[in-house]
Amino acid sequence: MSKYDFSGWATKSDIRCSDGRTIKENAFADCDGKIVPLVWNHQHNEPENVLGHALLKNVKGGVRAYGYFNNTDSGQRAKQLVDNGDIASLSIYANQLKQNGGDVLHGTIREVSLVLASANPGACIDTLSHSDDGDFDDAIIYQDMPLVLYHSDKKDEDEPEEEKESKEEKEGEEKMAEKTVKDVIDEMTEEQKNVMYYMIGQALEEGGAEDDEEDEEPEMKHNVFETDYTEDNYLTHADEAGILELAKQPGMTFQMALASYGDMNGMELQHDAISSGFDQDTTHNGNVTWLFPEYKDVRPGAPELITNDQGWVNTVMNKVHKSPISRVRTSQVDIREIDSLRARGYQKGKQKKITGNFNLVRRTTDPQTVYVKSQLHRDDVVDITDFDYVQYLYNIDKMNLNEELATAIVFGDGRPDSSEDKIFPEHIRPIYLDDELYTLHRDLDVATYREELQGTETASYFGDNFVRSEAMVATILYAREDYRGSGKLDMLIAPHELNVMLLARDRNGNRLYRTKADLASAFDVNSIITCEQMSKKRRTVTVEGTEVTKKPLAILCDFSDYTVGATKGGELTHFTDFDIDFNQLKSLLEVRCSGALTRVYSAIAIEENVVNSGNNSNPSTQS
Questions:
Q1: What pLDDT, in 10s, does the model give residues 149-180?
Q2: Residue 440 domain-assigned?
Q3: Would you call 322 exposed, middle or buried from its count of C-beta atoms within 10 A (0-12, 13-18, 19+)?
Q4: Any bridge partners for residue 556, and if so which?
């Protein structure tokens, strides 16, 4: 090995870094004998930042780097700084890093950099980028280890590397032995001095040391070589115990206790400790909050959304028929029950009669605009870097708009007619509230089916779940006799009603329907979709002059029989604008459409009377 200008630890193995990771032994074994650029402070933007090169040697305990400065002005200037002891540490840039838990197992060193003494004692890994498999690709690794200069009069080029290192360590120990106690203490950092004073004070307190004179107490909590040190800023063991006792009081936090204790005792140290808040302070300069780790997200990125049930919303919006016509008109003539329209037999000599008239049923549906408008402060958009705040809010707006449309299609808007935000049923006609010509409303009469199953002794044989389940199956199948829709039905059901049927058992304890597929087969429907919003919907009807409130239990429909119409330009559109006066990004998501069932008897609504409707808010009304 030719004469190098300096040597030092590029990395030290098995040292726990400040972020909890540990570089394992031989993690960079593949870099043994590799020559990499020697740069200043990891800068690559100018050629002058390249100071020379470094030879890497993988040895026990880590990787050592042997630096060679080039003959450029910057290289020679850096050499003088190293020789003079102005530059104290090395750092490496590595990539292709692989880890197992907190252990770094493998990586490739790309460069060695001269850096000033790290602000973080010990090891530190600054992650620059992550890979898809969860490892981190690029990182800068700091090691707060001193450099060793090469002395040509004490080194032998042919000397084995391990012996050279041993000599360097021995020379360092001899040099350390020549220092006085004052020299050693002067080289300590302020934090190291405070720790030393604290340990000496603790030893004296535990040993019961006493002075010969009663009026004087030994004071070993200050630096005997410094006269300007004030003990008022020193936090003793007794102070710490007092702070902890104060923090245990009701309504008191540790931060509040620290500040209160300092105010009561005239101390100023606590103000430095709490001034920066409970953030990590890796310098440990009087800030006790570095003892508390930072919070980390379980699921990094955008916050998880807590939403209503969206499964049925997607089913409805995907299956309804989309039409490019926003003004929809339907025409039907019901000739099933008109006797005068029957064909007649002819008798010779008799006059033929004219077939009777019939009524034409026609209705039209006009569109209405439905929108979601939001605004974002640009400061928030710029400051939030964990995820795309603009796209995140757009997804929320779109989800809310789809849910509102699906609710209006199936159940109705629910807001009073006086509300200026109401989606009127004349524009988007709700299936549940539609006329009997389009939606068949059937009541679930459990009492009647209870008697039909087993007479008055039903309770002795069958539970309530069994009776209610069979009543639901019978009601739906009988309603299917009048159904005139075009295809296979989908069934929206309240979650509780579904659970009642799934938990129904016969007299032997066997479940009637083990899965939703068994229920779907019994109802002869394509699928069963739970809709938790259904349990809050109500409908008020007038029966023989009396208002009766009903709640839906299940709605069956082939949603392709429901047409949503929107002309070009009225489909779902997203508008954005920027308000320079208030520095706000504004977003408008809107659709102008109409909606209605276009086939008669194409939906079935199963409902039952509400016993106490006094607590029902905003009931939908149909007379």
A1: 554 334 444 444 544 555 555 555 455 445 55
A2: no
A3: exposed
A4: 491, 604
